């Protein structure tokens, strides 16, 4: 399925992130499985887009839905660029058992992406909506069935590309996550990654600078993917974002450059957001937890435990929890202006939707 991005003169919906379940729109959502397993949701990425399946993987403590209690939180654990399910992300079984969490893995858009694939790599736009769709499904399913859970304990983590999606998730849903843990994620779609330019990251997202190309990366689509966009961060702060953002990144990472993460951390701090960065240097290498100061750093479950466990654990006096309604319960929209339009994530309907509308040209 090929997705292209183009702008025209009138207000235009470029992406409409809607979803429905198997059967007709509005039909009953599938029930949560009684044991850890997989649920498939039917989603659409635009008003005229064909339906596709979104696999949502669920892990309960001791593998049973019945172990979810009024103290149990929800956590997303997101795989890396090119990975699937639980690849290169903290172990869901450990998260479920040790932090009393219902853990969600998402085979989001372009899971298993390869460099040889013809279309551009999404880099956290549709992918983030897939993640929020999965979270919304679990959240609303628990509420609809009157199953107890702790709605103040909603977390997200991810390794590499999954770290990028975790950062984007708290941007798109600024009132929903109590804490996120980004492990070596690229924080923005830089020119070198987008267009495979020399001298920067070796990553190649396969975008094009030609406006006539179906792979064209418009300024609007690049700006929304920057988690260090100062204007957007100011809006997140204004919306009351109190998410604890833990970032663990190798100072010598050759894949997702630390310089861009430093930039983002600085802008987030200037906006007044709650950032807890850990930049790993060669001096930090201990051969056990810290294996290198590059991209992998060490085993990612261990890194999460060491740097962020206190924010997730119900036994910790530093555990993070929400103190006000999240975006799903607020049922309002979040809007981010870019150079030529506005991206809006709307929570007022049955499921979250994402729309970009281009600004009118020439006052028409």
Explain what this protein looks like in three dimensions.
The protein has one domain (13-358): Rossmann fold (3-Layer(aba) Sandwich). The protein is 24% helix and 22% strand. The chain is built from 9 helices and 13 strands. The chain has helices at 92-99, 126-144, 161-172, 191-195, 219-223, 230-238, 258-271, 300-312, 327-330; strands at residues 13-16, 18-20, 37-44, 52-59, 73-78, 101-107, 154-159, 179-183, 244-250, 274-280, 333-338, 341-346, 353-358. A 9-stranded mixed beta sheet has the order 2-3-4-6-5-7-8-9-10, with helices on both faces. A 4-stranded antiparallel beta sheet has the order 1-13-12-11. Helix 2 (126-144) crosses helix 3 (161-172). The radius of gyration is 19 Å and the shape is globular.
Average of per-residue pLDDT values: 91
Q: DSSP helix count?
A: 9
Strand content: 15-25%
Number of domains: 1
Shape: globular
For this structure, what is the CATH homologous superfamily? Answer: Alpha/Beta hydrolase fold, catalytic domain
End-to-end separation? 33 Å
Range of helix content: 10-25%
Q: Unreliable stretches, pLDDT < 50, 5 or more residues?
A: 1-27
How is the largest sheet built, in terms of strand order? 2-3-4-6-5-7-8-9-10
Order of helices and strands: EEEEEHEHEHEHHHEHEHHEEE
Largest sheet: 9 strands, mixed
Q: Cα-atom Rg, whole angstroms?
A: 19 Å
